[in-house]
Amino acid sequence: MRGDGFIIIEGVGKALSQSDETRSRPSSSEPIGAPGVVVLSPRHLELKKAFVEEAQATFGDGHDVARRDREGEFSRSLWRQCAELGILRWAVPVEHGGRGYDVLSTTVLMEALGYACRDNGLTFGLGVQTWGIQKTLLQFGTPAQVRGYLPGLMRGDLLGAYAINEEGSGSDAFGLDTTAAPEGEHFVLNGEKTYITFAPIADFAIVFAKTNPAAGRWGISAFVVDAQTPGFTAHPADSNMGLRTVPVGTLSFDGCRVPKANLLGKVGAGASIFNASQSWERSLVLAPQVGAMERQLEQSVALARSRKRNGIPIGKHQAVAHRIADMKLRLETARMLLYRTAWLRQTEQPHMMDAALTKIHLSEAFAESSRAAIAIHGGEGYTTDAQVERDLRDAIGATIYGGTGDIQRNIVAALLGL
After folding, report:
1. N or C: at which end does the chain have fewer Cβ atoms within 10 angstroms?
2. Residue 270 is part of which domain span?
3. Nearest residue to 394 via CA among 290, 196, 241, 284
């Protein structure tokens, strides 16, 4: 599909094919780009298609997801299978044992993951580890910290939690009560973190705390804290509306003595670390949802063509056809924003506006397309067995985590000079 100089590849599944445009391009992994223009190379297409074929054999038809969703079960064995597929190595440089894929390549593969895997909690968790944990360690960690945690993360043996949110802090990320007081060769942490992904089962956490309360956001520091540290308590998982296959919960710190060697970056650098890591996560963590939206669209089109009422396919009815047309529109605009933001990140161009717009649109588009898919499926779509309603429950979370839609709109408005 072509429009305004921006070429979008038609699909990641059976619809995937190289157009005459892409076949004429050099066979390399480098995208062709300019402001407002992003073109996927044949290499990107090859990576995407090959991964979908391999991943679908691993994830299957997704019926086990419905059971794990009901029971709130995280599958550690499936997580390790994802590691064996190389997912947790995609964005890690080769010198650290990773695949060394660039930002756009990793984003394209994350989209393919969302298409191949019906477990939105799992794909979200993989995105959190890739953009929130791994990128933060690589950018701010000491060589010893990187050596100590990154290999285990890539193997799927370790899980990290990103612990900044606190009860009552809401959208004020730096409104923290957790403190870290220096004491000899340690910092002593006291406080509680809430709504933390992987908190109940994490092997370590990146924890933000006030080291100088009088300095406001410039008095916040970050620490890598092992779960086995005395005073570190992981509470049982919360019961949530969606994304139930990845545990979310509370971490408490009561006189938790953390060696100064576990300081991430410098004292007082916590706000800068958070802003940098959130920039990654806000920009790209929703990439799997674009793949999920394409899967939704394919499933809805197939149903609209096969299901009949009074001998007429339901897709012939304008109400159904228009819903599907809107699903296609949301999918393509979401993909354009996602690829553009990834390209800006890769080329180190300003991207704050694009990241905020991407977060708003992808989160809201997935929710709206999920509602449309349920409507198209009718009563069947409301049942858990059809595995359609789960997408809507999972989609709502994306409008909240990583900065709500209102916060993203504040960012956009501020950048526009309001």
Report:
1. C
2. 160-274
3. 241
Pair (54, 38) in one structural domain: yes
Domain boundary among 242, 274, 306: 274
Q: Give me the half-sphere count of Cα atoms (radius 13 Å) on the Cβ side of residue 279.
A: 20
In the DSSP assignment, the letter for residue 381 is G
Residue carrying the six token digits 């708003």: 360
Q: What is the pLDDT of residues 210-227, one digit of tens each?
A: 999 999 889 999 999 999
What pTM was computed for the model? 0.89
Q: How far apart are CA 256 and CA 180, in angstroms?
A: 9
Closest residue by Cα to residue 199 from 165, 149, 155: 165
CA 219, 224, 227, 229 torsion: positive or negative?
A: negative
The count of other CB atoms within 10 Å of the CB of residue 272 is 16
CA distances from 284 to 23, 247, 338, 345, 346 (A): 27, 21, 7, 10, 12
CA angle at 285 for the pair 167 and 122, rounded to the nearest 5°: 85
Tens digit of pLDDT for each residue in 45-74?
899 999 999 998 888 777 789 999 999 999
Q: How many CB atoms lie within 10 A of CB 378?
A: 14
Q: Which of the following is catalytic: 30, 73, 185, 281?
A: 281
Residue 198, domain member (yes or no): yes
Count H helices, E strands: the chain?
14, 14
Distance between CA atoms of residues 127 and 172, nearest Å: 23
In a domain, 279, yes or no: no
Tokens of 375: 């409507």
Residues 322 and 184: their CA atoms lie apart, in Å, by 66
What DSSP letter does each residue of 136-185 carry, written as one string?
HHHHH--HHHHHHHHHHHHHTS--EEEE---TTTTT-TT----EEEEETT
Q: Which residue among 124, 155, 186 closes a domain? A: 155
| Known active-site residue 281 | yes
Q: Count of residues for the chain?
A: 418
User: What is the spatial distance between Cα 393 and Cα 397, in angstroms, rounded to a whole number?
Assistant: 7
User: Are the C-beta atoms of 213 and 151 separated by less than 8 Å?
Assistant: no
**pLDDT digits 0-9 by tens, 249-292:** 999 999 999 999 999 999 999 999 999 998 888 889 999 999 99
Residue 33: alpha-carbon gap to chain centroid = 24
